Amino acid sequence: MKRSIRLTINGFPYEMEVEPRRTLLELLRDDLDLTGTKEGCGMGECGACTVLLDGRPVKSCILLAVQVNGREITTIEGLEKSDGTLHPVQQAFIDHGAIQCGFCTPGMVLTAKALLDENPRPTELDVRRAISGNLCRCTGYQKIVEAILACRRDGEKLDGKGPESGS
Amino acid sequence: MGEERASGSIGSSPSRLDAWEKVTGRALYVVDLKLRGMLYAKVLRSPIPHGRILDLDVAKARALPGVAAVVTGKDFPYVFGATILDQPFLTFDRVRFVGDPIAAVAAVDLDTAEEALSLITVELEPLPALFDPVEAMKPEAILIHEGLSGYALAPGIFPVGGTNICNHFKLRKGDVEEGFRESDVILEETYTTQMVQHAHLEPHAAVAQVDRSGRITVWSNTQTPHFNRKALARALGISLHQVRVIGGPVGGGFGGKNYLKAEPICVALALKTRGRPVKLAYTREEEFGAAPVRHPTRIRCKTGMRRDGTWLAQEMEVLFDTGAYADIGPRVCRNAGFSATGPYRIPHVRIDAYCVYTNKPVGGAFRGFGMPQVTWAVESHIDTMAEELGIDPVELRLRNGVEEGSISATGQVLHSVGLKETIRQAAKGIGWGEGRKPFRGKGIACMHKSTVTPSSSAAYVKLNEDASATLLCSAVEMGQGVSTALAQIVAEELGIPVEKVSVVFPDTDVTPYDMATVSSRSIFFVGNAVRHAAADAREQLLEIASELLEADPRDLELRSGRVFVRGAPEKALAISDIPLGESFYVGSKGAGKGKPVLGRGVFHVPDATPLDRETGQGKNPSTFWMYAAQAAEVEVDPLLGRINVLRMASAHDVGKSINPQLIEGQIQGALAMGIGTTLFEEMELEEGRVRNPSFLDYRIPSALDVPEMIPIVVEEPHRQGPYGAKGLGEPALAPTAAAIANAIYAACGVRIRDLPISPKKVFKALRKQKGDQEERPTRT
What we know:
The structure holds two protein chains of two kinds.
Chain A: E1 3-9, E2 12-18, H1 24-31, E3 50-53, E4 56-59, E5 72-74, H2 88-95, H3 105-118, H4 124-130, H5 142-149
Parallel strand pairs in A: 1-5
Antiparallel strand pairs in A: 1-2, 3-4, 3-5
Helix pairs in contact in A: 2-5
Chain B: H1 19-23, E1 39-45, E2 51-57, H2 59-63, E3 67-72, E4 79-80, E5 87-88, E6 94-95, E7 101-107, H3 110-118, E8 121-126, H4 133-137, E9 165-173, H5 176-182, E10 185-193, E11 205-210, E12 216-220, H6 225-236, E13 243-246, H7 263-270, E14 278-281, H8 284-287, E15 297-305, E16 311-323, H9 329-339, E17 348-357, H10 371-389, H11 393-400, H12 419-430, E18 440-449, E19 456-463, E20 469-472, H13 482-494, E21 501-503, H14 522-549, E22 556-559, E23 562-565, E24 568-574, E25 597-604, E26 626-636, E27 643-653, H15 660-680, E28 685-686, E29 689-690, E30 708-714, H16 736-748, H17 759-772
Parallel strand pairs in B: 1-14, 12-13, 16-17, 20-21, 27-30
Antiparallel strand pairs in B: 1-7, 2-6, 2-8, 3-7, 4-5, 9-17, 10-15, 11-12, 11-14, 15-16, 18-26, 19-20, 19-25, 22-23, 23-24, 26-27, 28-29
Helix pairs in contact in B: 10-16, 13-14, 15-16
């Protein structure tokens, strides 16, 4: 028996009828054709399905759509500006060669954005911890980490030792 | 002249062409395709490793509302196979591994398809199953493929009739007994490697549709579109032009998406759904078991050297556990077989490589194609010899390593051999010989790899009327960046910026033949075809321009989108001012000038040689060889056996660097995969069933699990490669395990010979070492 839910996705309001067992991932990909969010495992283990729920990264394949009634979702499609300008994290991924097959990229980018929104000057360890839930089989993570570090608010690249003392 | 080279030219690192689609989530992978009327497929797979199908009843499933088609092997009695035609699209009367597809359903949604599966009844009679290839090889073992002697075979494959051995590769060079007699030190050990999964993030998937004329279209994330077209057409007994295979962006392949995988069942269903497309995507659970794996191996290695470290004799017996069906196993066995000794000059060699059926997941192509396994054995073994001889491991490798002009184990005169430089650079990169801390150690390993030979590729370059270009070729972009690198070649040849080059996705109706995106071959083979096609387009353009500029075509130059007359720089034309489509040119030159430009390039290897069946000798089994060396620094926790890989230096001879950033990405990515194989990954089986079919229990490296990586590029140009380039996709995960194992030995005197290297194994070995009260000399 379907239930009524309301969601805001990438700034747009939606009102939908969903089965209680429908996952947020299925709703995004199959009902709304927002295919940027991917299914890599269906069990919340790989992070390819990462979206932002009120700005925090969550795994949409193990969230029910009814659980996010009334909440705000950001998918990869909602990151760029309306004039097409990419989010700094997206641009950094391109500039640093952090994309190979691209399947982990949407989830990875959203996790990175959430990290930088919360901590604008992460260390390398902070970055690696934050993205440890996003599996990538292609890149070895090196360039992804470099891209995210390049987005630090002050543009400084740290060597993993922590913020410079005195700054 | 000081003219700037066009942006994105060879040797530079422009952004990848597909970066924008991927980073915005716009890229459409096969799993994202949605077509009108599309149906969703689910597969019923064998729950037992070996058995006879006594009864199969699909009537209830067929009758379920929402089910459009159900297929079984009975209504679809076709076979396929990359080397041996031994694999049914759907099982006939036998199941041979847990995961063997018995029946398939196409329905309006996945829930209905799953419900339909539950309504299918199967009666199976279990048969004794074989899980150990050593047992399976024995003449008295139950035959997994009773019809082996009658199966159609690809050339160069030699099964042993009446057994489960589907290929036996032999290499005999010199006289190995003589070599051992002359040796001062002879050591023999056995090494093993485990079952590993590709674990590409995007699962196997295909969409198939059959139109009213019977023409079949398949959208697939395959690495081998032309091969698949032929295999499907051949199986169904129809003409090649009746089958169309279309590719798109692929979410990781690593060999797992070679040859037919999800397509056969998808096509079988689509033939019964009256034109409605059918989509089949594997679940992650199916990826761990129903999809192919890396061959587990057992390798016996016997080495004889003189006291001064001169390598005289090498004897190896390599067992490849190929699982229930041959897939490309026999060729892995052959190619790794003729490369098994590693990149060394050895006068006496004897190799026997066997490819053996068992009732387990299918061993298929996986980045490295057998080289990770043999490299593990040989590179661990060399260090054991080095220890015995008292010679530094780097020195021992340099002493015996191949060089330009060396003769390989098959008798090939080697060209473009950057091996020694990679060894020196890797050693330098890790600081070999510097600094010593307790329970820290450094290790080195090197490797070589062949490329599938012969093979061929073709390409078209369309020069558009505004001086942009479109490249049509069948190289599959699966993350490695091949479409960007090939676009750079077009840009270089035409003197236009790489941003002005677009690359079409493979489509067997449109893009010309390419053998496959495998074996690190694309830059060399497709790159050459692309280079010829772009050069051909340039020649055609200059021919047209010469008429307009009233100059000899040989006096013309193409640079930065303009055609110049050498020696008369004021006489120049922009490409966009040269009529290439409209053959109407208004002006003093008259009408009817100019015509479309379509560059055509083909590349093949007419001088390839087979290998002798008895001796494995042949002068050109590989057009080029790749070389690499890796050095690792590790720290071992003596209390718990935990291994911390601190740093790894990875040096690669690529011939010529086309795009440095893409090259670094390949090295780093493959190195991470190598770390996974060395320390974390293992598909654990119980009675043929995978116990850990998920990322929860099969751990691939996360961002916290990779060490500092130092990629190093060495360029030893190949005279036949485009700009001297060779290949790179596979090498970086082959030497990793031995480099780490050798470093662990240096750190604490423990030698592990069975992958993966787990803390438990190290811990046990340390305890034993303590208990034995042996004094092992520590390496300085």
